């Protein structure tokens, strides 16, 4: 019997491209499988004039897809892992984690600029990016910006920003590397947990023959470590806390940034562990940073936050 898979995706160009990447991998495993992509508008895509923080956080991008999975309208959902809330509904587990695309954040300059001016106005709604950017370029100010990659590129030209920050992964998937003005190393700017990894979500108790072929052990270990770091830090999906794990051979090195909402202090550190202990490594690093009052710096919230 010919098998049939319906992939649910948000309808943004990047989301559809990501669903196509997963479709290509399923077809590489078995070209006989029939794969359909079903797109839907999520609450996060519909409400564009408010900050995500005000309307309920990043989870808004996945809720409609959760419902479609539960109703049986789709068989799997494909997400950017960094948009998936840290607590996942146990009825809708993450079945596979992709190999990681470039995890770095990048700077995109307004047309005509060769480098970031002194006192630049930077468009970002991410407190993680604003905090780390203001360490590198102390003169910057930040203004919220929302919308998909193309909308942001337009707003950058029309709405008085000098630059914006995006994930290299999304731009590369869209073939838009040419807009990148500067890459931040993962040391300079710790990426969001899961940045660059695609997650395949399914229904509990159901799996597919091709799932193991899509699941990347290094991507999975990094995802587990980074997400456990963030869970342990607390602070929710708008917290600047960040973690990035690199896997080589059987070893994992996780680097994290912990931000203390009460004091406005941040602390960075790293540790190494065997990949079989990925989750413990994330948790251990978070606990150390939360306890180690000495290791940090202070973030000037008044000036640097939107
Ligand atoms: N929050 C939107 C979002 N979710 C995932 C990506 C990039 C792709 C990825 O991380 O895999 C982006 C855009 C961006 O931050 O530039």
UniProtKB/TrEMBL annotation:
Domain Porphobilinogen deaminase N-terminal, chain residue ranges per copy: 5-206
Protein name, entry field: Porphobilinogen deaminase
Record note on cofactor: Binds 1 dipyrromethane group covalently.
HAMAP family given in the database record: Porphobil_deam (MF_00260)
Gene: hemC
Domain of life assignment: Bacteria
Family matches, as CDD domains: PBP2_HMBS (cd00494)
Cofactor: dipyrromethane
Extra information: The porphobilinogen subunits are added to the dipyrromethane group.
Domain called Porphobilinogen deaminase C-terminal: residue spans: 223-290
């Amino acid at each position: 019997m010919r098998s049939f898979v319906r992939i649910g995706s948000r309808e943004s160009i990047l989301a559809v491209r990501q669903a196509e990447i997963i479709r290509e991998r399923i077809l590489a495993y078995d070209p006989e499988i029939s794969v359909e992509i079903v797109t839907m508008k999520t609450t996060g895509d519909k409400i564009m004039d408010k900050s995500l923080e005000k309307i309920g956080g990043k989870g808004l991008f996945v809720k409609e897809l959760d419902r479609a999975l539960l109703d049986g309208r789709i068989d799997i959902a494909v997400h950017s892992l960094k948009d998936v809330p840290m607590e996942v509904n146990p009825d809708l587990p993450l079945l596979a984690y992709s190999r990681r695309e470039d995890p770095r954040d990048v700077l995109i300059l307004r047309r005509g600029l060769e480098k970031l001016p002194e006192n630049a106005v930077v468009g970002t709604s991410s407190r993680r990016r604003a905090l780390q950017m203001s360490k590198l370029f102390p003169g910057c100010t930040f203004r919220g910006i929302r919308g998909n990659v193309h909308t942001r590129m337009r707003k950058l030209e029309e709405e008085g920003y000098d630059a914006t920050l995006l994930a290299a992964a999304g731009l590369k998937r869209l073939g838009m590397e040419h807009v990148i003005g500067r890459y931040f190393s993962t040391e300079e700017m710790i990426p969001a947990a899961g940045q660059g990894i695609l997650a395949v979500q399914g229904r509990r108790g159901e799996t597919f023959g091709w799932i193991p072929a899509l699941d990347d052990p290094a991507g999975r270990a990094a995802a587990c470590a980074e997400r456990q770091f963030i869970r342990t830090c607390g602070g929710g999906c708008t917290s600047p806390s960040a973690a990035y794990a690199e896997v080589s051979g059987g070893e994992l090195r996780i680097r994290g940034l912990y931000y203390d909402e009460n004091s406005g202090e941040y602390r960075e550190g790293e540790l190494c562990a065997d990949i079989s202990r990925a989750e413990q490594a994330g948790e251990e690093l978070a606990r150390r940073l939360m306890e180690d009052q000495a290791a940090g710096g202070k973030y000037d919230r008044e000036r640097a936050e939107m």
